From TrEMBL:
Domain of life: Bacteria
Pathway: One-carbon metabolism; tetrahydrofolate interconversion
EC code(s) of this entry: 6.3.4.3
Enzyme category, top tier: ligase
Annotated InterPro entries: Formate_THF_ligase, Formate_THF_ligase_CS, P-loop_NTPase
Name by which UniProt lists this protein: Formate--tetrahydrofolate ligase
Sorted UniProt keywords: ATP-binding, Ligase, Nucleotide-binding, One-carbon metabolism
Catalytic activity, reaction form: (6S)-5,6,7,8-tetrahydrofolate + formate + ATP = (6R)-10-formyltetrahydrofolate + ADP + phosphate
Ligand binding (ATP): 61-68
Gene Ontology MF annotations: formate-tetrahydrofolate ligase activity
Assigned protein family: Belongs to the formate--tetrahydrofolate ligase family.
Length: 551
């Protein structure tokens, strides 16, 4: 049975009942229909244990890992064993929904619902971000057209337009054609909405005032004499914040088992910081004893960014980290072809387990206890499962089999008990680098300690940018690495646990509103493209409104 068919067989409880289960009163939410709601700000607070659980994974492969599915199944399992629980997830982007990766609502019997709404337009947050992003772009070009009092160099406008769909044709465009009344011609481009700085700002802001402060700090470009121009200089920060006033508020939904879940914010982890909103995580911590959240892609991307970018904003480090792996993916990291993953191959599994081991060590460096969740597939053999458990045991980490796709929370009860035990252990969080370390030192630390690489090579442009950042006092900001998700290196074909490689930084993008500098490595793109057979080809809607083909 397909995920959407499973989800459509479950009747959501009224969102008012889910809110009450989470400790929210009717006047603390605004309903968006019967199964969705937005929290009102400021966030409610009640006394809880405030345990935070981060779910991350190995490097993803076409074999599948199921991080969101495990996150949801673990949340349902914690509820099942009697713990007060909240789940916090990112919102899906239409890019992967209509493209190749799929949605972000889990799978099987571990899903958040209404999955059709969440995977499509949901509460309109993505559209609000797209509109706000493009309003700012229009205001920039209008300022240049109307006399350019700020002396903006149209060749050095940094702010791009955005669209929440994979559209490679918009990566590089020329605008302003058509004569004097159609604007000043210049080169431009589009980012996917979830890679935009406004998405990062939305996810890191504490309230409306913080949202406005961050928007005003956005660097939109440079003057003809190379001085940065910010949104505050345009005096439009309030207007842009106005368009995001509702999108800033966390969204409340539920799992198939009716565990409360926040689904809010959706930055990609390969080209952005990959974590749901700080407000959604804080809402979970304020309302429940256990908040289960995830970070996008592997521990080298979303996991590292959660620890070094999100933790300072949330104000609390994870009490436990769950690293998700599948037997299939580990065999692929060990050199097995996709078509042969159904056959037992313990030798390849042990070779590929080095990728898992690397992520375990990377997360342990933060001083937080780790457990491994083996997301079960039907073709997994007892010998393979035992080999993973033995490998992890040798590293002093427990590996637990979880059948969350087939059983929901019932398939993760052992994992839930293990997580509760880990949360009771003392831990002492320590970031990867000191906050005042230079950008180059922070990147070197990520490459060595998180990726397992040896060196960093900067392009001529990147070297010049570093000098500019030092001149403006931006040289000690946090770093958000934009890198392929498929490998620890910047080469997507280099699987397993490579070492001694060099990471190539081709360009930096200062995102002062978000509070970090983005380092673009390898060939990573901020506007993805659709595959040869996009998922959209398999989708349809019947005359009575029933959706099909949505996973």
């Amino acid at each position: 049975m397909k995920d959407i068919e499973i989800a459509q067989r479950v009747t959501p409880q009224p969102i008012t009942e889910i809110a009450a289960k989470a400790g929210l009163t009717a006047d603390q939410i605004d309903q968006y229909g019967s199964a969705k709601a937005k929290l009102k700000l400021p966030l409610p607070v009640k006394k809880t244990k405030r345990n935070l659980i981060l779910v991350t994974s190995i490097n993803p492969t076409p074999a599948g890992e199921g991080k969101s599915t495990v996150t949801i199944g673990l949340g349902d399992a914690l509820t099942k064993i009697g713990e007060s629980t909240m789940i916090a997830l990112r919102e899906p982007s239409l890019g992967p929904v209509m493209g190749m990766k799929g949605g972000a609502t889990g799978g099987g019997y571990s899903q958040v619902i209404p999955m059709e709404d969440i995977n499509l337009h949901f509460t309109g947050d993505m559209h609000a971000l797209t509109a706000a992003n493009n309003t700012l772009a229009a205001l920039i070009d209008n300022h240049i057209q109307q006399g350019n009092a700020l002396n903006i160099d149209q060749r050095r406008v940094q702010w791009k337009r955005a669209l929440d769909i994979n559209d490679r044709a918009l990566r590089h465009v020329v605008i302003g054609l058509g004569g004097p009344t159609s604007g000043v011609p210049r080169e431009d481009g589009f980012d996917i909405t979830v890679a935009s700085e406004l998405m990062a700002i939305l996810c890191l802001s504490e309230n409306i005032a913080d949202l406005k402060r961050r928007i005003n700090r956005i660097v939109i470009g440079y003057t003809h004499d190379r001085q940065p121009v910010m949104v505050a200089d345009l005096q439009v920060g309030g207007a842009i914040a106005l368009l995001l006033k509702d999108a800033l508020r966390p969204n409340l939904v539920q799992t198939l088992a009716h565990t409360p879940a926040m689904v809010h914010g959706g930055p990609f982890a390969n080209i952005a910081h990959g974590c749901n909103s700080v407000l959604a995580t804080q809402a979970g911590l304020n309302l429940a004893d256990y908040t289960v959240t995830e970070a996008g892609f592997g521990a080298d991307l979303g996991g590292q960014k959660f620890m070094d970018i999100n933790v300072p904003a949330v104000g609390q480090a994870p009490n436990a980290v769950v690293i998700v792996a599948t037997i299939r993916a580990l065999k692929m990291h060990g050199g097995v072809a996709l078509a042969d993953l159904g056959e037992e191959n313990v030798a390849a599994l042990r070779a590929g387990a080095a990728n898992l081991g690397h992520h375990i060590h990377a997360m342990q460096r933060y001083g937080v206890p780790v457990v491994v969740a083996i997301n079960e597939f039907t073709a997994d053999t007892e010998n393979e499962i035992q080999a993973v458990k033995e490998y992890c045991a040798d590293l002093g980490v427990q590996a637990i089999l979880a059948d969350v796709w087939g059983q929901g929370g019932d398939g993760a009860v052992e994992l839930a008990h293990a997580v509760v035990a880990l949360c009771d252990q003392p831990s002492e969080f320590k970031p990867l680098s000191p906050a005042d370390a230079p950008i180059e030192d922070k990147i070197q630390a990520i490459v060595e300690k998180t990726y397992g690489g040896a060196a960093v090579e900067y392009s001529g442009k990147a070297k010049r940018q570093l000098k500019t950042f030092a001149k403006y006092g931006w040289d000690k900001l946090p770093v958000c690495m934009a890198k392929t998700q498929y490998s620890l290196s910047d080469d997507p074909k280099l699987l397993g646990a490579p070492s001694g490689f060099t990471i190539n930084v081709r360009e930096f993008v200062p995102k002062l509103g978000a509070g970090f500098i983005v380092a673009l490595t390898g060939n990573v793109l901020t506007m993805p493209g659709l595959p040869k057979h996009p998922a959209a080809l398999d989708m349809d809607i019947s005359d009575d409104g029933t959706i099909s083909g949505l996973f």
